[in-house]
Amino acid sequence: MTFSHDTEQALGTLVRLVNTMPGPNSQVDSLETLEELEKFVQEREFSAVDTLSEKDLAEVRDLRPLFAPVFTTDSDAAAATMINAIIARGTSTPRLTNHDGHPWHIHYSRAGASMACRITVECGIALAQVVSAGERERLRRCEAPDCDDALIDLSRNRSKRYCDARTCGNRLHVAAYRERRKASGE
């Protein structure tokens, strides 16, 4: 299943947001300062962003534990309950827009909404689209034993196992190769 550009963008934002949280394998919180929030907003290419404040930082940080469990649930019903609760926190005012060279697409938050409201509604609706399309299994955690990052598998055959094939995937492949060489006496 291929999702629209704006849905994939929102899902990427969501994964990036959830992965800023410290977890069992990484105690680093990479969204502690206003500068880190500003960098996040710039990297995720949010349009028409007003000046961000410490309040924005606190509100966005508070969203992370709401979204994180969606990546580990094994039930569409449980995911739907979580997603509905998330979406209900925001104010949705769908509107068509074609900014920054992108074709017409839907923004679900009103103009001038806070960053937390925008993330809540945009990412919540993207998750709802994934679940309603019967694609919840595309939401998961990295399979590397020393990584717990969230990922969205947008591959055709749903074969993505690692948050980043260049780091987690490659590290495990190299370790397996070395183990095979060691076992064969090379």
Automatic annotation (TrEMBL):
The lineage of its organism: Bacteria, Bacillati, Actinomycetota, Actinomycetes, Propionibacteriales. Pfam families: ABATE, zf-CGNR. It comes from Kribbella kalugense. Gene3D superfamilies: Jann2411-like domain. This is Putative stress-induced transcription regulator. InterPro entries: ABATE, ABATE_dom_sf, Znf_CGNR. It comes from the Bacteria. Residues 138-181 form the Zinc finger CGNR domain.
